[in-house]
Amino acid sequence: MAQQGGLDLKLQYLKDTIRLPHRNMIDALDRIRTSIAPFASGNLTTVVGPPGIGKTKLGEKILEDTISLYADEMRADPSFIPVIKLDVPPCKSKSSTFPWRDFYRAILHELMVPEADLPAQFSQRPGTSSVLGTRAPGEESAIHFAQYVAGQALSRRRTKVVILDECIHFANALHSSQDWGNVLKSLANNKSITFLLLGAYGTETIVRASGQLARRTDIIHFPRYGNTPEDVKAFRSVVASVQARFPLAGAKFEHLWKDLLLGSFGITGQFIRILMTALRLLEQMNKGKDINSCKWSDDIVYAAMPSPEEFESISDETVKGEFCITPFLRRPAKDAMTSLRAKHKEAILFQTKLRKAASSSTRAKRSNKAKAANA
Fold it and tell me: What pLDDT does residue 124 have?
C-alpha cells in the first residue's frame, strides 16, 4: 500500500511499520527474554543505547510476545493484563521536578483504573512537588495514594511485565535519585512483576539509587554498528533489508552502504531518518508531481545526509554515552578499556571520512554547475 501511496504514507511506513530484525536487535531481544523469563521475576532489566537505535521497537516486540504468551489466560479472564507499556513523562521544564502525577496516571490508564477511583486531590493541579520535598496541601497523600493504587492494580491485574520507555527522564529529573529508586522498589516489591526500562545513555545511573536496586538490575547495552568486519556485514544486511522493503519503486541505495554507515554513525534509526529526509527532498524538488513518478538518484541520498556539524554532535553524544556506560556493564575492565580506545579512534575516523565525503560532494556539484554553464 505504501508503494503506491503519497509521501505521508511512505514516511509513516518507514517510521512505524517497517521492522528491522538485525543482529544487534536480535542479541538484545535474546538477553531481554532471558532477563524477564518467569524464573527471573521481580528483577529490573534496563536497556540502554543511543537515540534511534531501536529501543522502542524492542519494547513493542516484548509487548507483543508477552500478550501472545498469555493469550489463552487473557481470554479466560478478561481482567488479566499481563503486560503494560508506557512512556515516562518528561519534566515540564529544566527547573521543574518529576511529574509523578502524570506517571501514575499513565500506569493506571494502562491498567484500566478509572480516574474516578482516585482521591479528589489527585485531579487537582500540582503545587511545588518532589516525592519527598515540599508540596501543596494534600499533595503528599494524593501522590502516595496513587502509588498505592498503582501497586494494588498491578497485583489485581496479575501483571507480569511493566515496560517503561524514555526512562532517561527519570535520570534527568532534578530530584534525588533516591526518590525514583524508592518508587521503583515499591512498585517492584511484588515479586511476580518484572520491569523493563528503556532509555538513552544515562539511564544506567538508576543503579545508583540504592544497593538493593543495583543487585536486582540487569543492564543491557544496545549498541550501534561500528567499522569492524562483523559490524559492517551486519549493517550491510540492514541496508539490503530496507532496500527490499523501501516504499518507492526504483529507488536504489544499497550500493551506498559505506556512506550510509558513515552518515548514520551506525545507528539504524538515523539511517532510516536519512531515507525519510531523502523522500521529503525528492518531493520538494519535484513540486506538483506524484512522488511515485519522481526519479531517485544518489544525489538525493547525499543531500539527506547530516551536515558535518550535525554528525559531530551525534557522534560526540554517542561516544560519550558509550564511555560512561562501560563501568555499569558486566565484563572485564581490560576488555572494556580496549573497546573504548577502539571506539574513540573509530569516531575520529568516521568524522574525518564524512567531512571528506561532504567536501567531495560539494566539489562535484560545483563542477557540474560549471560544466552546465559552459555548455
Answer: 41
In this structure, the strands spanning 44-48 and 194-199 are: parallel
Residue position matching grid coordinates 532496500: 243
Contact between residue 148 and residue 187 where contact means Cβ atoms under 8 Å apart: no
Q: Poorest-confidence range of 12-26, 58-72, 137-151, 270-284? A: 137-151
pLDDT of residue 334: 47
Distance CA 162, CA 36 (A): 10
CA distances from 114 to 108, 123, 146, 150, 288 (A): 8, 12, 12, 12, 49
Cell of 112: 484500566
Residue 162: φ, ψ to 5°: -115, 120
Closest CA to 143 of 190, 195, 180: 180
CA neighbor of 228 nearest in space, from 329, 342, 367:
342
- Cα-based angle 130, 131, 135 (whole degrees, multiple of 5): 60
Q: Output the pTM of the full model.
A: 0.79
Among residues of the chain, what percentage have pLDDT more than 70? Answer: 70
Mean per-residue pLDDT, 148-166: 89
278 vs 113: CA distance, rounded Å: 44
Local structure of residue 17 (DSSP, 8 states): I
- Name, in order, each residue with C-beta under 8 angstroms of 223's C-beta and a sequence gap of 6 or more: 24, 49, 50, 53, 322
Query: What phi and psi, each to the nearest 5 degrees, are found at residue 219?
Result: -100, 125
Dihedral pair phi/psi, residue 221, rounded to 5°? -90, 125
